[in-house]
Structure formats: C-alpha cells, structure tokens
C-alpha cells in the first residue's frame, strides 16, 4: 500500500489531500487502469463495474459526466454515447487502499448494454444461475442495431 494511503488511515475527518497526490498514489494496474463501481446515488443500487485510466477519472471529475476506458476498443467510453443512457457523477470516492473507485451516479435508464437497469442480473446459487430481470429497453432498440 502507498505511504499516502497508509498515512490517511490515521487522518481526521475533513483533512484535505491534493487530488494529484491521490491519483499519483492510486494503485493502477499494469495497464494503467483501476476498477470503477457505479452505484445509483439515491438508492444504493450497484449498477455496473468498468475500468478507468487516470485521464478518464480526471475527465469525469472535471465534467461530471462519467467516462470510462474501454479495454476492448482501447478508447474512452463516455457512458451513454450510443445508447443515450448517461451517468452523471454525484460523488466519487477512492477506497482505503487506493485501488478501486466508487462512483455515486445519477443513471438515466438502463446501465447495462443488455437494456437492464444494472449489469448484475444473473443470480448465482450453488446449483445454477438465474436471470432475474427483464430488459427495460430491448438492446436492439437501445442501440439501433444487433450487437
């Protein structure tokens, strides 16, 4: 763990820390990415998990519109660019180790590319998995084409 995050364990509430220092000390993976969990700010519903690089996180903090890094496209992914289902940042947090970001967002419509409200629609048991929700919007309607 970074010395900065270790020092923050003993800090009092309200102690300011420069954002650049936090981002420098954050634990980015070998590809320069950090996991980001999106949570609906008012209900606490966990919507999705995606990846951010430093530039995506900085853009998100600066603009209030959530931007991720798409590993498959190797490009920025501004949530809602193609579907219109945007995420607007309400609050961002780093965890105690500096290796995960929590984004409290205001999600318009479905967060999942399947058209469901959230990406965690597969409930697991020891015996099987079960789809537990229907799409709010069919994916073909959401994106205007077959995926």
From TrEMBL:
<keyword id="KW-0862">Zinc</keyword>
<feature type="binding site">
    <location>
        <position position="97"/>
    </location>
    <ligand>
        <name>Mg(2+)</name>
    </ligand>
</feature>
<comment type="pathway">
    <text>Amino-acid biosynthesis; L-histidine biosynthesis; L-histidine from 5-phospho-alpha-D-ribose 1-diphosphate: step 2/9.</text>
</comment>
<comment type="function">
    <text>Catalyzes the hydrolysis of the adenine ring of phosphoribosyl-AMP.</text>
</comment>
<dbReference type="GO" id="GO:0004636">
    <property type="term" value="F:phosphoribosyl-ATP diphosphatase activity"/>
</dbReference>
<dbReference type="InterPro" id="IPR026660">
    <property type="entry name" value="PRA-CH"/>
</dbReference>
<feature type="domain" description="Phosphoribosyl-AMP cyclohydrolase">
    <location>
        <begin position="48"/>
        <end position="121"/>
    </location>
</feature>
<keyword id="KW-0378">Hydrolase</keyword>
<dbReference type="InterPro" id="IPR002496">
    <property type="entry name" value="PRib_AMP_CycHydrolase_dom"/>
</dbReference>
<dbReference type="GO" id="GO:0000287">
    <property type="term" value="F:magnesium ion binding"/>
</dbReference>
<keyword id="KW-0963">Cytoplasm</keyword>
<keyword id="KW-0460">Magnesium</keyword>
<keyword id="KW-0028">Amino-acid biosynthesis</keyword>
<dbReference type="GO" id="GO:0005737">
    <property type="term" value="C:cytoplasm"/>
</dbReference>
<feature type="binding site">
    <location>
        <position position="99"/>
    </location>
    <ligand>
        <name>Mg(2+)</name>
    </ligand>
</feature>
<feature type="binding site">
    <location>
        <position position="95"/>
    </location>
    <ligand>
        <name>Mg(2+)</name>
    </ligand>
</feature>
<keyword id="KW-0368">Histidine biosynthesis</keyword>
<dbReference type="GO" id="GO:0004635">
    <property type="term" value="F:phosphoribosyl-AMP cyclohydrolase activity"/>
</dbReference>
<feature type="binding site">
    <location>
        <position position="112"/>
    </location>
    <ligand>
        <name>Zn(2+)</name>
    </ligand>
</feature>
<comment type="similarity">
    <text>Belongs to the PRA-CH family.</text>
</comment>
<protein>
    <recommendedName>
        <fullName>Phosphoribosyl-AMP cyclohydrolase</fullName>
        <ecNumber>3.5.4.19</ecNumber>
    </recommendedName>
</protein>
<dbReference type="GO" id="GO:0000105">
    <property type="term" value="P:L-histidine biosynthetic process"/>
</dbReference>
<dbReference type="GO" id="GO:0008270">
    <property type="term" value="F:zinc ion binding"/>
</dbReference>
<feature type="binding site">
    <location>
        <position position="119"/>
    </location>
    <ligand>
        <name>Zn(2+)</name>
    </ligand>
</feature>
<comment type="subunit">
    <text>Homodimer.</text>
</comment>
<dbReference type="Pfam" id="PF01502">
    <property type="entry name" value="PRA-CH"/>
</dbReference>
<comment type="pathway">
    <text>Amino-acid biosynthesis; L-histidine biosynthesis; L-histidine from 5-phospho-alpha-D-ribose 1-diphosphate: step 3/9.</text>
</comment>
<dbReference type="InterPro" id="IPR038019">
    <property type="entry name" value="PRib_AMP_CycHydrolase_sf"/>
</dbReference>
<comment type="similarity">
    <text>In the N-terminal section; belongs to the PRA-CH family.</text>
</comment>
<feature type="binding site">
    <location>
        <position position="96"/>
    </location>
    <ligand>
        <name>Zn(2+)</name>
    </ligand>
</feature>
<keyword id="KW-0479">Metal-binding</keyword>
């Amino acid at each position: 763990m970074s010395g900065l995050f270790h020092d923050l364990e003993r800090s009092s509430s309200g102690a300011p820390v420069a954002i650049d220092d936090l981002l420098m000390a954050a634990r980015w993976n070998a590809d320069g990415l950090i996991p980001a969990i999106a949570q609906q700010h008012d209900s606490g519903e966990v919507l999705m998990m995606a990846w951010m690089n430093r530039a995506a996180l900085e853009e998100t903090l600066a603009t209030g519109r959530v931007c991720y890094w798409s590993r498959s496209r190797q490009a920025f992914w501004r949530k809602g660019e193609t579907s219109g289902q945007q995420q607007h940042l309400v609050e961002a947090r780093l965890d105690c180790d500096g290796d995960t970001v929590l984004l409290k967002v205001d999600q318009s419509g479905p967060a999942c590319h399947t058209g469901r409200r959230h990406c965690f629609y597969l409930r697991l048991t020891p015996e099987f998995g079960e789809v537990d929700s229907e799409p709010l919007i069919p994916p073909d309607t959401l994106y205007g084409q077959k995926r």
